[in-house]
Write a structure and sequence with these properties.
Layout (H helix, E strand, L loop, with lengths): L9 H11 L4 E5 L4 E3 H17 L7 E4 L5 H13 L2 E4 L6 H11 L3 E4 L2 E2 L2 E2 H7 L5 E3 L22 E7 L7 E6 H15 L7 E3 L7 H12 L3 E3 L9 H7 L3 E5 H11 L14 E5 L5 H11 L2 E8 L2 E6 L6 H6 L8 E5 L4 E6 L5 E2 L2 H7 L6 E9 L5 E6 L3 E4 L2 E4 H8 L7 E9 L3 E9 L9 H10 L10 E4 L14 H10 L1
Helix pairs in contact: 1-2, 2-3, 6-7, 9-10
Family: Belongs to the ATP-dependent AMP-binding enzyme family.
GO molecular function: medium-chain fatty acid-CoA ligase activity
Protein name: Acyl-CoA synthetase (AMP-forming)/AMP-acid ligase II
Length: about 500
């Protein structure tokens, strides 16, 4: 990895890499389009000029809800050039979540893909009262860069608002700076030790906090990444092979998907011959899965730990001992301090940690008196500094690396006339990490309830597709404690994990 000097902002990284290796490929896609680092810088500046003509200035709030495409990365880079405050929104969020985000951030501009995968995002944006809607799927506004103000120079200003469901029914806005995102991406780059001959891949939504993580790694290490607008196997394998991808992954669910596909092949045939590394995070990784990947896929596996509030906390390295790669989440970089509280909760302090939330009260509750972030995860540190996660304090479900709020789904289920009470839990799933299971009580005299009926009801209520329950269990009574009558979800997890 070559040093780019003192690069306090994301734009300084983009400009620095473009100066070092302007003709090296940066972004690839499944249609065989490509953008070099020099072209990324130049096009981002032209788009920044187009946005500037549209009224976007340093500090202007801009939301974007776009799939993983070259245009999306260019738009985000252009906003970084202007010093705007970006609000990336997951492309599968719908009226409920998007409406909340727009109310919280009041963006002057909302970029959407138009109709994408059968859903009209433009109509939703207008329905929700967005003041200026830009369709940015395959075309972006451009102008002359000489009209632009000077690039931002302070990497410590809040210029990013990412969203996480957490344990509440409404998404939480997480405040990040260029510095915190660069710190996260630097951790990834240092641990994985990739170089200009590598080819990465982004198969997850670029609007995820992992998007800038990955971009920073590309800029620091100088290699390209294949962007997949829609990831599915085996369909995506042709693009992986055509571009010679050497590193793939995203989360535990991706490992399982690649593994399942490999097991369909004849003995000795590799689904991606150039693949040498799987990496990711976002969900627990069973130790046995590590050994299966190494044995069957014939590549290394380096797993890490991150969250929207701190995009990269620890990361495994291919150089780590096998037992540490299999059974831990890797080690933190020098810029991340981890403390284990008395109750086992993992506490964080460091450059990659966010500045707090859009809600000041949430910020007060999230940090302790010494400035450590309470993660809600439970774990321990090994004597040689590796982190082992053992559970969660937070009542969330991590499905394919994405947080799903149980409370949000429960509150919607309560409105169903055939449901008297509900508890939503996560159950272990080899492909998803966890699957969403709704356990319900029915009122007396109610008719039989089906999973299809429940999911149709939740869709109508505006719940995002990735949060829909995949399992329904009807019980006579939910187990509760004898004091506050709280539902004992651990009993439900034990019961239906064994079922």
């Amino acid at each position: 990895m070559r040093s780019l000097g003192d690069s306090p902002t994301l734009w300084a990284l983009i400009a620095g890499r473009a100066a070092l290796t302007p003709d090296a490929p940066a972004l690839l896609d499944t249609d065989d389009r490509r953008l070099t680092f020099g072209q990324l810088r130049d096009r981002a500046e032209r788009v920044a000029a187009g946005l500037h003509a549209r009224g976007v200035r340093p500090g202007t709030a801009v939301a974007w809800q776009l799939p993983t495409r070259i245009e999306t990365v260019v738009l985000s880079a252009a906003l970084a050039r202007l010093g705007a405050v970006q609000t990336p929104i997951m492309p599968f969020y719908r009226d409920h979540e998007v409406g909340h985000i727009l109310r919280q951030t009041s963006p002057a501009l909302f970029a959407v893909p138009g109709t994408w995968r059968g859903f009209d995002h433009t109509a939703m944006a207008r329905r929700l009262g967005a003041p200026d809607v830009l369709e940015a799927y395959d075309s972006l506004p451009e102008g002359e860069p000489d009209t632009l103000p000077a690039p931002p120079s302070d990497g410590t200003r809040v210029r990013w608002i990412y969203w996480t469901s957490g344990t509440t029914s409404e998404p939480k806005g997480v405040l990040h700076t260029d510095r915190s995102l660069i710190a996260g991406g630097s951790c990834l780059a240092l641990a994985l030790e990739l170089g200009p001959d590598d080819v990465g891949s982004v198969a997850f939504p670029y609007a995820h906090i992992g998007g800038p993580d990955y971009l920073v790694m590309l800029l620091l290490c100088g290699f390209p990444a294949l962007l997949l607008e829609h990831f599915s196997l085996p369909d995506s394998l042709a693009a992986y092979r055509r571009h010679g991808v050497t590193m793939a992954g995203g989360s535990t669910a991706f490992y399982s998907l690649f593994l399942a596909e490999q097991r369909k092949q004849p003995a000795g045939g590799r689904i991606i011959p150039t693949l040498r590394l799987l990496s990711g995070g976002g969900a627990p990784k069973p130790p046995e899965l590590y050994h299966e990947v190494v044995r069957d896929l014939g590549c290394a596996l380096a797993h890490g730990y991150g969250m929207t509030e701190a995009p990269m906390i620890t990361m495994g390295s291919p150089r780590d001992p096998v037992d540490r790669l299999a059974a831990t989440e890797g080690r933190p970089p020098a810029s991340m301090e981890i403390r284990i509280a008395e109750d086992g909760e993992v506490l964080l302090r460091g450059e990659a940690v966010c500045q707090g939330y859009t809600d000041p009260e949430l910020t007060k509750r999230a940090f302790d008196a010494e400035g450590f972030l309470r993660t809600g995860d439970v774990g321990r540190l090994t004597p040689d500094g590796y982190l082992v996660l053992t559970g969660r304090l937070k009542d969330i479900i991590i499905r394919k690396g994405e947080n799903v709020s149980a409370k949000e789904i429960e509150e919607l289920l309560y409105a169903h006339p055939g449901i008297a009470d509900a508890a939503v839990i996560g159950l272990p799933d080899p492909e998803r990490g966890e699957r969403v299971c709704a356990v319900v009580e029915q009122p007396q005299g109610a008719g039989p309830l089906t999973l299809a009926e429940v999911t149709a009801f939740l869709r109508e209520a505006g719940l995002a597709v990735h949060k829909l329950p995949e399992q329904l269990e009807v019980v006579d009574a939910l187990p509760r404690n004898e004091t506050l009558r709280k539902v004992l979800k651990y009993q439900l997890r034990e019961r239906f994990t064994k079922a």
